[in-house]
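Severity: low
Component: inverse-folding endpoint
Summary: output formatting inconsistent between runs
Steps to reproduce: submit the following structure tokens with default settings.
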């Protein structure tokens, strides 16, 4: 699955794949410089060097076995992305009929900091809060609210109309 996703991404990066028209209803950002930086092997090696440097600086003497965690840190991003995109479209429940197979997966959605509330995210892609039901909790949104409160970031409100919530499963139509 990760190789398949990587192949699709490379197609977009090299302009050999076209974006499905259903995703073009709203303009997609085009960040060529960011894509070139993110897809650069030298930059990947710099990140690896940064992790190793951090370990060298902070692993206590005599705890050499902690260096075995380095490969986990190197692969954390791709593996977490694969878990989110695989599980978020295969397991769980749907609050909204989005015309796709996206699902919300609890309690893993909470453990992965809200990332497995894929169904909610697909419905309200501009909302920083992926939790939409009373029993869902998005820890990342709570961190964002704190950072907004202390002035580190500026959260923009995402308008969610009553009409958008109309399609929620388990709610009555007005």
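Observed output (run 2 of 3):
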């Amino acid at each position: 699955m990760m190789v398949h996703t990587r192949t699709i991404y490379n197609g977009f990066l090299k302009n050999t794949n076209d974006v499905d028209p259903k995703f073009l209803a709203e303009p997609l950002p085009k960040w060529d410089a960011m894509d070139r930086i993110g897809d650069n092997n030298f930059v990947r090696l710099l990140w690896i060097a940064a992790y190793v440097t951090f370990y060298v600086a902070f692993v206590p003497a005599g705890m050499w076995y902690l260096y075995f965690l380095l490969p986990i840190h190197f692969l954390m991003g791709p593996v977490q992305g694969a878990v989110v995109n695989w599980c978020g479209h295969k397991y769980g429940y749907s609050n909204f009929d989005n015309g796709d197979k996206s699902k919300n997966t609890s309690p893993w959605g909470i453990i992965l900091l809200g990332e497995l509330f894929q169904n909610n995210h697909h419905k309200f892609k501009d909302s920083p809060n992926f939790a939409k039901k009373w029993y869902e909790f998005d820890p990342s949104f709570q961190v964002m609210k704190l950072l907004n409160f202390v002035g580190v970031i500026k959260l923009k409100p995402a308008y969610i109309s009553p009409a958008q919530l109309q399609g929620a499963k388990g709610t009555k139509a007005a």
